[in-house]
């Protein structure tokens, strides 16, 4: 998500800008995932040397329309060492129109030779109260009836990840419908309250 936002910042008609308009064809296509000059690669299934050689060839060509050709490589830590070596020269001296964004949850697995040539940005978990408010907003938009306990359980299930909290919300809606009472959501996700644990101990 952040990689796509950065691609929008770079290729927006008003850019490069910290606040892309979200309305131009570049912004809209990048958001939808079908922009011709933003190439998304899943390294979990494209991790070998042949895929990286193909990518290296692709870098040579200028963008079809936008300002930059942005390569978003997800799960970058899964790329093999041989494949990273094939990509190293391109990362060292990329053409002026190429931007590489390597996304990973395991940055320690990225070879030092690669990491030293990148700007690194680490993201922290989202604040618990912000997650609760985000869940509240989404439930309101979707016409879902819920309570503070259910929202707290959904935020807790995500452990600081908005995506994981949304997955828990989807699961709760699929099982409970448009009414999500706290106890039902707790039972569904297996997260028990202090009160229920106390009653079992008694």
Question: Tags for this entry?
Answer:
202 residues, three-stranded parallel beta sheet, single chain, disordered C terminus, two-stranded parallel ribbon, 10 helices
Structural class: mainly alpha
Helical percentage = 40-55%
**Uncertain residue ranges:** 193-202
Number of helices: 10
Strand order of the largest sheet: 1-2-3
Strand content: 5-15%
Distance between the termini: 47 Å
Overall, the morphology is: elongated
Textual characterization of the structure:
With 202 residues, the protein is mainly alpha-helical. The protein has ten helices and five strands, in the order ααβαβαβααβααβαα. The chain has helices spanning 2-11, 25-32, 49-59, 81-92, 112-115, 128-142, 148-158, 162-176, 182-189, 194-201; strands at residues 38-42, 69-74, 98-102, 145-146, 179-180. The chain has a three-stranded parallel sheet with strand order 1-2-3, with helices on one face. A two-stranded parallel sheet has the order 4-5.
Map the helices and strands.
Blueprint: H1 2-11, H2 25-32, E1 38-42, H3 49-59, E2 69-74, H4 81-92, E3 98-102, H5 112-115, H6 128-142, E4 145-146, H7 148-158, H8 162-176, E5 179-180, H9 182-189, H10 194-201
Parallel strand pairs: 1-2, 2-3, 4-5
Helix pairs in contact: 1-2, 3-4, 6-7, 7-8, 7-9, 8-9
Outline:
50% of the residues lie in helices and 10% in strands.
